[in-house]
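Listing S7. Sequence submitted for prediction.
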Amino acid sequence: MVDVKKSSLTGSISDME
């Protein structure tokens, strides 16, 4: 949700969350 910047670098984790 608030990990928009992180999501960009770690798109992989975005799928897990």
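Caption to Listing S7: primary sequence and predicted structure tokens for the chain studied. The mean pLDDT is 62. The chain has two helices and no strands.
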